[in-house]
Amino acid sequence: MALDAATGRRYWETTYNIDMAKTCCGPVNRGVALGYGSVYVVTLDAKLLALDAKSGKKQWEAKLADPRAGYSETMAPQVFDGMVIVGSSGGEWPIRGFVAAYDARSGNEKCRFHTTDPETFEGDSWKTGGGMVWTTPAIDPERNLVIFSTGNPNPDLNGENRKGDNLYTDSIVALDAHTGKLKWHYQEVKHDVWDYDAVSNVVLFDVKQNGKTVPAAGEAGKVGWLFIVNRETGELIRKSDPLVRMSDNMFTTPTKEGVDMLPGANGGAEWSPPAYSPETHLLYVMEMNQLMTFTTQETKTVPGQIRLGSTFKSVTGDEAVQNGVLDAVDVDTGKVAWRYEAPQPMIGGVLATAGDLVFTGEGNGWFDAIDANTGERVWRYNLGAGVNAPPVSYAVNGDQYIAVAAGGNFQLGYPLGDVIAIFKLKPTS
């Protein structure tokens, strides 16, 4: 739907009827993209739609992949230089991930890059090796790069039949924006059997290295670190301090008897986009601490059916660990400048503003404004449902607004809702 950004008055709304959808983590959509007079949105049954921005009427539709095989689409698309760029969801099915670019005006496919490398997967396991691209790619227009993070190899927690590093899963990847050719990659976790994939958005910023300013890209993985790489080469510049609790037996291969481990399969940092402030040189990342039991089981491959390769579940009772953190990471050192703790695992997103405030939400309904330099909470407002979406900021006629959705979270069981809340900055005089 389209709303008046200052009053909330509704201009139009349109409904898309989904044919069929297979989703691991609830019926999620992470947003739309705007460009060339169109609104671009993906659907759970793996379509890309272009809508007229003034009326909401469909202009064209493109089929991205086969939903019967397990493909779905949940990301907000990216628009760049006449193209709409999307990635694939569905990492729990025996399918192969991709990033693809489509002509923004016609919907014709221009190029496609597959995220599983045959040389680093045993046999033909690369054909169903996962590597989904859950969140919106970043664009470096100066270097003509599309930069994104990739999900876990498949099966998620059983690597017996996919020996090797399993590139380009669990990685930060850069492509030539117009050809889709690989420019560089950095793999955060080799041969992942813990579901420690890289699903949070890549953020672009500059850092100091050996006294020089270097163009960088950062990604906060579910494995629990922020990885900062050189934007021109993909080489690791630095890895942050641990952002979440890490157990001593981390990276122990799961067994039939079960292994308790931190981080759990949810992370670390999940799909939640971080935010960078050039004023503070801090990257603000939200994560979760969930102690989980990883248990292997026999892996069967059936086309169109989910294939995890094991089970993972949160530890309950006296041993339970369930809470969330918002970390402010100094990108020039990798040190955590401050940490805000929440009573529940945090998932949603972060917004940093030039007014030195950081906005984020919690699963219990609180929408928080936090001092960007100290981590002290300035104010909060309860929206009655999980605030599990990233906030945005915009201005209309010189007035600044902050908007956020409170829809809850299916996967974590946070209270569901149907709220878009818009806050207006009070005049200073």
Keywords:
4-stranded antiparallel β-sheet; 429 residues; 40% strand; globular; 32 strands; mainly beta; Methanol Dehydrogenase, Chain A
Distance between the termini: 35 Å
Please indicate the percent range of residues in DSSP E strands (runs of 2 or more).
35-45%
Neighbour order of strands in the largest sheet: 3-4-5-6
**CATH homologous superfamily classification of the domain at 2-243:** Quinoprotein alcohol dehydrogenase-like superfamily
Alpha-carbon Rg, integer: 21 Å
Report on the architecture of this protein:
By secondary structure, this protein is mainly β. It has a domain at 2-243: Methanol Dehydrogenase, Chain A (8 Propeller). Helices cover 0% and strands 40% of the residues. It has no helices and 32 strands. Strands 3-4-5-6 form a 4-stranded antiparallel sheet, with no helix packed on it. Strands 7-8-9-10 form a 4-stranded antiparallel sheet, with no helix packed on it. The chain has a 4-stranded antiparallel sheet with strand order 11-12-13-14, with no helix packed on it. Strand 3 and strand 4 form a beta hairpin. The chain is globular. The chain starts with a strand and ends in a 5-residue tail after the last strand.
